[in-house]
Amino acid sequence: MLEQLKTYFGFDRFLPLQEEIIAKVLAGRDTLVLMPTGGGKSLCYQLPALRFKGLTLVVSPLIALMKDQVDGLRANGIPAGLLNSTLSSKEASLVQDQARQGKLKILYVAPERLALSGFQRFLQSLEVSLIAIDEAHCISEWGHDFRPDYRNLKSLRRDFPGAPVIALTATATEPVREDIVNQLGLDKPEIFISSFNRPNLTYTIQPKTETLGALLHLLEKHKDGSAIVYRFSRKATEETALELSERGFSALPYHAGLERDLRRETQEKFIRDQVQIVVATIAFGMGIDKPDVRLVVHYDLPKTVEGYYQETGRAGRDGLPSDCVLFYSYGDRSKQEYFISQIEDDDERDKAHTKLEQILAFCDLQTCRRAYLMEYLGESWPKTDCGGCDICLLPREEFDATEIAQKVLSTAIRTGERFGVNYLVDVLRGAANKAVRNRGHHELPVFGISRDVDSDELKEMVRSLVTNGLLVQQGTSFPTLAVSAQGRRFLNGREQLTLTRPKHAAPVHQAATSERETAYDTRLFDELAALRLEIASDREVPAYQIFGNKTLQQMAFHMPRNEVEFSKISGVGYAKLRDFSEPFLKVITEYMEANGQSAAVGPVPVTAPKKRVRGISMSIRETKDLVAQGLSFEEVAERRGISETTIRSHLERFIQEGGQVDLGHLMPPEEKRVKIEAAFKEMGEARLTPVRDALGDDYTWDELAVVRMEMRQRESQGEPVA
Ligand code: ADP
Ligand code: ZN
Predict the structure, then answer these.
(1) Whose CA is nearest to atom 14 of ligand 1?
(2) What is the tens place of the pLDDT at every residue in 7-18?
(3) Is residue 617 situated within a structural domain?
(4) Residue 688 pLDDT > 80, yes or no?
(5) pTM beyond 0.85, yes or no
(6) Do 228 and 161 belong together in one domain?
(7) β partners of residue 311
(8) Which atom in ligand 1 lies closest to the alpha carbon of residue 36?
(9) What gap in Å lies between CA 256 and CA 656, rounded to an integer?
(10) E strands along 170-221, which residues?
């Protein structure tokens, strides 16, 4: 099994429970697998599929994911196919033929197909060895995602009595679990429940003040990674996406009110790394299997802890450190309370209220957030430092905040409750700057009243008063702070106030993340990532399907020099070794030569190498020169010992960056050229696939690509293409 794991998937060892599950499946037992997102569920049926004689049928409700999965399998050299409503009938019958002829090992099908009698007949003609039910909770009305189609799945059991069934889900409470077993008619199933802890995620709650600034800061930290920002309303997603775009970030909104095609396009762009940030309502996420999301932000208070766990769960599927940040304010709490008070049904309202209380308790915690989540999910959790939440990373202590709170609130009142946190802090600390003097605020009795307190500490204090409801924030672009009714009661009633603050003794940057980072060469990583993106766009697949970040990090750490060494990298199986070792090895070699480094023995120094190599560009230029000499793709490929696809992508990259090269000898005959150009223009398309679909098989990919390049060249020279 280990051998197959390495050969096909490139991995050296199993993730927890995978081996046990696979063993049971191979022994013909029915199994139910409960694992969190990123736990490695797919492998539990994909690996057995390779061992069984017949076909493995996978039922999945997420159409968008099917293609992703199938592409991923094919990239690993595993024959797989799919049948769903996105296929034309011609394409579908082709897949059916392949399945009948035993040419596929894995076939993904959408559940609604199972009700069609024609489809049932087709299934009857197959030799099915294993049935996998993905997102199995969809079968239960108790679940959050019930799909009536899933009720048809029982027929599979009847039709293929000899094939074991494996049901998989990332969300299953006790009733849902029972439902899955009963509805699917699982036979004495072996049930596997893995921990739902996500060790690579760091949970942080931040006060919701200067939120945009805080968000920008987070995005800056994760500027090389994908991020999802969740917002409460549709309108808010659009506003925030716009604000981010205006500040130079690549961000798009996503919500259920947008047109279907636009939604699909946004999703696609996100998956392909063509947009970095999606600002979304919770409508975004189902069907996003992107493994390298580095940051999930809840800009507004989520409604439930379950929702929060699910949404944050979309970060870091690849197991690499990722951040989950929630902005919390008292205002959001009141907003939600108001919405809940509008619910008419008593039961529903009570339920919503309980849920709100739970998420509020989570936000207000002074103890480990992970422990709360785990207990919420019904898992026991040791009360030790988790090393991955704001509380554990930055221990807090209680202190008497009565006096300082009185000062802050008085200052807010004296200045007219029209200013934000920075201004208040200026007045409190006695900063007689122009803004303060112009308003005469330097003459107020509160001016300089907290001169002795550090300004960061004061800001934290003000935020804390917002979080605790004594101050309320008004407006969004330039939020001002006013004293709430509760704040006034506190002032007038001379109440005591106890708050918490970070313990000063604790090292502030006791970063769990730094320990987790491996000492790989980040420059080389960047070079490799650029190559990966190039290959991925050429193949029109997401970059992570070429290699995951973990795999690139390993390359940038071990710096393999030849195929044997390359094959040892985790994530490199036989198909990827065959298809990609060459270009990646080339970049690594060039990099090492340029930096005078021999391969890594022991940890690589993380210090950045002096000379920035442009391994890829050098290679691209070489390709371009050969094309300019009049060689065909094939000849260049042969001459350079690189695949034709790579040659083509070199040239595209060169042209995309504004380069010019004579393509005359590569051009298809004029008649064809005209048709291709017309098709690109008519469809308003830059991608090859739709144009190729429209024109048919008489046109080769190369012909389409060359015409597109030529159009781009004319465009960049300023000639109108039309
Ligand atoms: P799930 O469906 O449970 O959310 P996936 O099957 O998508 O999880 O796997 C999550 C990630 O873990 C994927 O990037 C996958 O390639 C990786 N993975 C799966 N099994 C292994 C393994 N044995 N070793 C290393 N990585 C693995
Ligand atoms: Zn913790």
Answers:
(1) 318
(2) 999 999 999 999
(3) no
(4) no
(5) no
(6) no
(7) none
(8) 3
(9) 34
(10) 190-193, 201-207
